[in-house]
Amino acid sequence: MNYAFIAADPYLQYYNRNLDQDVSNEDISQASLEQAVEVVRVALPQQEAYIPALGNDFDSIMQTHIEGGASRIIQKRFIRLYQHFSSAQEAGKFGLLLAQNIARCRDGISDYFTQLEKQYIYQIEEDIPLEARFGRVLLDYKDRFLDDFRNPLIGSHEEATEGQVLLRERMRLPLGFPGNFLNPLYPSMGRGMAEMYKPEKVIEVFLDGGYISFERGEQSTSSYMWPYSPSKMVYCLQDEINLSSQDLRCLGRERFITYEQLSHYIPQDPFLEAEFERAFDEMEENDYFNTDASQAEEQLYKPRFYEYLLRKFGYLLGGE
What is the pTM of this model? Predict the structure, then answer.
């Protein structure tokens, strides 16, 4: 495995977003912030689920967490999301989403911004190369891996929020996440000194596998995380291809890789093209392609097909 790609994926450039380039300091001036908040406030009552209490909740969040002494990073993240929703003429939807976070602290708002950014900001353009699409799938796995460190037990909401915010900042460089570093406000509530949240332990579980366990009073739960191995990478890619339309609607995103994109790539690679022609000229499967007509299109590609591309793109080294 090419461990350098875990921390510094060279294809991240195709879907990363630079916050300072997206949002200027002028965009977060008092006048600009007030204008953005007013646009959302006016659009909010147009939402079907709107009730006056939500308008009050939105105002409270803006005054406490965005306009009232928030860091420059938080304000820029707010404006970037506002620009996305307003360009889609959905400023009211943005307000409604924010209003539902009335009970959260500023770190909780930051955590929610992270969820919205994953869904709306760090998306991929249609014309990016296949290797960048592979990278986006693997980044999504790393993101879900950290999500599993969110304490799910009743009464652990503060640790669930603060632990997640702290852990994402700690692992931003080791796991190669996009975005800007932001100091959590209440890191002690995230149990940062607990063994399971220490960066070296998180990396150990990521690479070698292991259990993630939570306890609170009489409650307890644990789950096993499989090692980040070549076979796990292949599984992630196959799983992405096989996501149903309903799965994608629940995730709120487009598919990162399609069957058609893989098919279009084959003629660009002489080795894969030769293996494809050999398999279907003779109608006999080989190490890379399945010729069974009863299988779904997505099952055409065997694990060795994905492994070959992972090596070609640099995620795996020779012989793995």
Answer: 0.86
